[in-house]
Amino acid sequence: MSGEFVIRGARVLDPATGLDGELDVRVTGGRISEVGPGLSGVRELDAAGLHLFPGFVDVHAHWRTPGREDEETIESGSAAAAAGGFTSVVMMPNTEPVIDSPALVSGLLRRVERESRVRAYVAAALHEGLRGERLTEMQLLREAGAFAVSDDGLGTASAGVLRNGMLYARSAGLPVILHCEDHTLATGAVHDGAVAALAGVPGSPASAEDVATATALVLAAETGARVHITHVSTALSAALVGWFKDRNPNITGDTTPHHLTLTDELVGTLDGMYRVNPPLRPEEDRLLVGEALADGTLDFVATDHAPHAPEEKELPLQEASPGFLGHETAFAALYTELVLEGRLPLARLVQAMSCAPGRWIGEQGRIEPGAPADLVLVDLSEEWEVRPGELLSRSRNTPYLGRRLTGRITGTFVGGEMVHDRMGAKLGL
Amino acid sequence: MSNRHLLSLENVSREELRSVLELAREVAAGSFERPLSGKTVFLAFFEPSTRTAASFELAARRAGADVISISTRGSSLEKGESLVDTVVTLDRLGADVLVVRHGAAGAAALAARHTGAAVINAGDGRGQHPTQALLDLYALSAALGGFGGLAGRKAAIIGDILHSRVARSVIPAFRAAGMEVALVAPPTLLPQEPVWEAAVLESVDAALEWGAEVLYTLRLQRERMAGALIPSVQEYAARYGVQRRHLLPGVRVMHPGPVNRGVEIAGDVVLDEASLIPDQVAAGIHVRAAVLMQALGVGLEVAA
What we know:
Chain A is α/β, with parallel strands linked by helices. Chain A contains twelve helices and 18 strands.
């Protein structure tokens, strides 16, 4: 439906296919039809000076629909995603009600069809109501269109319950996305480190994540389930993921932009804005998790985009709801803090935001003839300030508020349609 | 301009301490006639407190202020109205000072961001309890021959440091006054990481060997007395309780109250002459009046 056009003169970078150079990309009928120098067409988009990557893929987002549409809707969440260069997003099931039945999955997918600017996939609950007791009807959930199962937000059930969940998810052909948190250890609101101790904020030790991660990985190896460990935030959990991945190709892991760029120093502000789960960690963890992302121990980045109403954040730190916005700042935060600091090559960042998660969810994350025209144009030279009024999310809880970042998304294409446009492209699409 | 919040003593200076304690002494000496006349002080207590509330109320009334107490049970969320909404309401009612007690660290700082009134932290979660530490220093300096007499003294902070807002104010305040501080607590009641770079000692006996002249004991909350943090009151009292045999010449015993007799301090020691506990309570009124005056910029020329 979007006809044909050529994106001209961008610096095309796609580690999946090895493309790296000033090239033109022809899009026909929503797919990439040709990549090369000197292409021309009836409709052309001059992208000289910009970078063109495969669209970013976010396997962890909360669009709060149904139930908390005051915080985010499919429309606003997908607009925020598009503004951040994301072309595919996985929605987590901890909504009100929890997405734990086939009818809820198909209903949500119908709304996505109408309301989302980007591709959106549904992760359904692993257990009914996320309660860690009764398995969901995973065969039927998959037939209804669920893409994965997860008890995200509630942490891991007991090992015995989780093991059965993995066995069953494997038979249903669904990957399991795991938020690893041991509730007997995670009794606090922030990382239990020196900053929390001095400030007097109840902390949860790093072992709350590490113990649950170890349990999940052992069970994943034993059951053979396809298991993805999300938002890895400690050096030890990253190392554990690495050890098990080397022996089991079904295991993957991600970390978040905020765990790669922020530390528990922010606990000292006592500001409810900075509560997130897993909590921000000390600098040493931040650096080592960054190394794990750089060397591929952790496969990719996911944002854990978690909108919250002001009254859930304008509270003492330990009473605030955990979570940050993520879509709109992810690339710029990582480009500014990791790439420009020389700690992560740009190609690896593109691989971690596009190619690797794209391959994990399907055929996305590649620029080659036949692939969906899911693309992002980026101006790596633009500096911008994160301002509340300019966010497309319905919520404002970004930890980067007021920060100056470098690298801005100028255009996002999903299936050849321009779903975000800061360049006045006038493609007439 | 004249409004000065008192939220934390984490970075307090020796000079700031000296100045507020000097003002408190002037208050005690009767140098001021209703210095807060015409001012409105709200006591906003989001967590139950009788002693601190009474002390603040008495201090404010004696200083001539209009005092209004607002107390709520449970967290602000349970009540329905948020802390910020309550603070804005009190602000519009014309508060000059908000004295805030709350169950969460940072509550007083949050309040201060939403009002033009001066905010005094009367205890926030495990965070800070600055007026407690100030009145402790007042009582201690009175016993040791003045503020200058504090320098070089050794104080052992004993008990549940992990959960204590008093410890988080007392430790930096004692240090700013020139004192040396050691910590005495079981590992389950101490922060996991060394936060204050202080010696950690294993018992009151060890504290005395170290040379402690001040045994500052912290309250052990009832729900922590037996179970996963400490095995029993008996075992706790044996190592961390102050007994009569610990009252070496010159040793002073302190406690922020209320005392669990026979737990933190043996029953026959609580009101011994080595105990500064009654002095601490009495100091509270003068110190809190001084804090209210400083917050409103009243009487500063005297201390300067």
